[in-house]
Write a structure and sequence with these properties.
about 600 residues, 6-stranded parallel β-sheet, about 40% helix
Length: about 600
């Protein structure tokens, strides 16, 4: 059989016999008579989960042999700093390619295997697609008993711009892409003026608390700054323009994030890595053997490039980060995550300087493998569920349940009968690059399944508002919408989905923090489960979400009809307890609990 493996539109390339792809849109574009094989729907979820665990563990350890780390730059490990990029752009795509080809050769024996990669992909798109295709080809060569001819071709097709857009933010972001220099110059000048004005109001010599701002930590900074007094002076990294007046008024500080280099070249770092690996070739082959396929020759150049990029970043940014911490002399550092490189560098430098570090989760986490929130000295958890499940993997420090400052002023409302369903809000599904059990076509399948379910329900005349992920493009879903011409559907990109809760009668979405927030708001919800991701409660085995879970359009239609008839309305007391379990206490005291958790660790610093 002649097999074409392509996750892009083919342009003038004509597939033969079998087209293997993860992209449903590419499968639909196949010529008549060509068999299509939706590859990432054919491996077992248990295998996907096992490789998730292995890939995320390996991403932060592959470059070490005992205490030896050839990627150290100024005492900071480039391999550690680039761990998330390694997992997302190298190891997980490779594992996906191996699992897919392993499933393929169980059904088809290729005599010719051609991999196609789209020409012109931005960011890390080309690396991800190349790694996945090369791993798939290596698996075919390993698994098929007789000789297989393996070829590679580039596809040039304008439609591939839609696929580039689909992954630009969710899978392929360049964490180290240089910012425009003029923006940094303007922001630096503005922050200097703000800090000069703020210094006139700061006379008490309060200890400094560095806050790296994003969602919950920004809400923490805003609420703490709004209080009168306060024992800490905040050094707010990356504040929004609307917060600058409050910084001046309170005598706080506006801090620039560390700079990114214009170029990411460090040949010396690559040479050190190759010397290290050359003397440990057997170890490297063992580490990078997935399901019996030795991928070290395939992955080594990509891994070396990651090390080179992050070595150059450390050389450029570490002195500025260290100087900033020495100048501020903070009592502690609080961050919303700890795997993105700038924040991870801040954490690692602070730890070298014996400054206590704290991470406050930026969303509800429900898996068993991600590295987020595992590096800072101490964790601040929204809720007991997070502390008992996701954060239980932390091997050091204290985990304190504090609540979420962003949700402090959102109180659970009594669920009530809303009458006929006139407006259905749908939270769009974004591909999760961190989980092999999230299939690449799940965004399309999710929306199609939800619209089919609504169409089959008694609420088919309702106005449907689909809040897409900011990374999404309306055009990408044109084919899905065209399949449901009788429905009234509006695609919305702007704003936060929470802002649309008040005008909706029902919220349908996948596994997301917004599902939990909708429950707390008092909005009837349905969780549409489109795949077999292994997730903690409440997305599995939960008394509130499980009865409101659909895994097919038919199940969804039945649940919509039950909601329309006033069923599935829980008691307010049950919802209040549930919200506290998963979202944390919403009593207005999250900030005070965070400050107390920080205060407890400072004397030991």
């Amino acid at each position: 059989m002649r097999v074409t493996y392509a996750n892009c539109y083919l342009g003038d390339i004509i597939p033969r016999d079998v087209l293997v792809t993860d992209e449903v849109a590419v499968a639909h574009s196949a010529p008549a008579g060509i068999q299509t094989f939706m590859a990432d729907s054919h491996f077992a979820p248990t295998a996907g989960e096992a490789h998730n665990l292995a890939a995320w563990r390996l991403a932060f350890q592959w470059f070490r042999d005992g205490d030896e780390d050839p990627t150290l730059v100024k005492g900071i490990s480039a391999g550690d700093l680039g761990g998330a990029e390694t997992a997302i752009t190298v190891l997980l795509p490779a594992a996906r390619g191996v699992l897919e080809s392993s499933a393929l050769v169980e059904e088809v024996e290729p005599r010719m295997f051609t991999t196609i990669v789209a020409d012109g992909g931005p960011g890390h798109y080309d690396r991800v697609e190349t790694v996945q295709a090369d791993a798939a080809a290596a698996t075919v060569r390993t698994r098929v008993q007789r000789e297989v001819r393996c070829d590679r071709a580039l596809a040039r097709d304008r439609r591939n711009q839609r696929l580039f857009g689909k992954y630009a933010v969710t899978r392929d972001p360049d964490f180290l892409h240089p910012r425009p220099r003029w923006r940094r110059v303007i922001a630096n000048g503005l922050f200097r003026a703000v800090n000069a004005a703020a210094a006139l109001r700061e006379r008490s010599g309060r200890p400094v608390l560095v806050v790296d701002e994003y969602n919950p930590t920004r809400a923490f900074a805003r609420q703490y700054a709004a209080q009168s007094g306060g024992e800490y002076r905040l050094a707010r990294s990356g504040p929004l323009p609307r917060d600058l007046r409050a910084i001046v008024r309170r005598g706080d500080l506006a801090v620039m994030p560390v700079p990114r280099p214009a170029t990411l070249s460090d040949p010396g770092a690559v040479e050190r890595l190759w010397r290290f690996a050359a003397s440990r070739n057997e170890l490297m082959s063992t580490r990078f053997t997935l399901a019996g396929v030795d991928l070290w020759p395939v992955l080594a150049p990509h891994l070396a490039r990651v090390i080179e990029r992050y070595s150059a970043f450390i050389s450029h940014a570490e002195p500025a980060c260290r100087a900033q911490l020495e100048r501020l002399n903070p009592a502690a550092v609080i961050v919303p995550y700890d795997t993105p490189p700038e924040t991870r560098l801040l954490i690692r430098v602070a730890q070298q300087m014996d400054i206590p570090t704290f991470v406050l989760n930026d969303g509800f986490k429900a898996d068993d493998f991600e590295a987020e929130c595992m590096t800072a000295d101490h964790a601040l958890a929204w809720s007991s569920a997070l502390a008992e499940h996701y954060l239980a993997r932390r091997a050091h420090g204290r985990t304190t349940v504090t609540g979420n400052p962003k949700a402090d002023d959102q109180y659970p409302l009594a669920w009530r009968r809303r009458g006929a369903i006139k407006r259905i809000l749908v939270g769009g599904f974004a591909f999760s690059c961190v989980d092999l059990n999230c299939r690449r076509s799940d965004p399309e399948w999710f929306l199609d399944g939800v619209l089919t379910g609504i169409e089959c329900s008694t609420s088919a005349t309702a106005q449907i508002v689909v809040k897409l992920h900011p990374a999404d493009h309306r055009l990408h879903y044109a084919a899905v919408l065209a399949a449901h011409p009788k429905l009234s559907v509006e695609l919305k990109l702007e704003g936060d989905v929470v802002e649309a809760f008040a005008s909706a009668d029902l919220y349908v979405t996948g596994a997301s923090t917004s599902l939990l927030e909708a429950v707390a708001f008092g909005l009837p919800v349905i969780y549409y489960r489109v795949n077999e991701q292994h997730l903690h409660p409440p997305f599995t085995d939960d008394s509130v979400i499980q009865p409101r879970t659909a895994a097919s359009p038919r199940q969804l239609a039945a649940l919509i009809d039950r909601v329309a008839h006033g069923e599935l309305t829980p008691e307010t007391k049950e919802i209040t307890a549930w919200c506290e379990r998963y979202l944390g206490q919403r009593d207005g005291h999250s900030v005070a609990r965070i400050i107390e958790a920080i205060r407890q660790e400072i004397p030991a610093a």
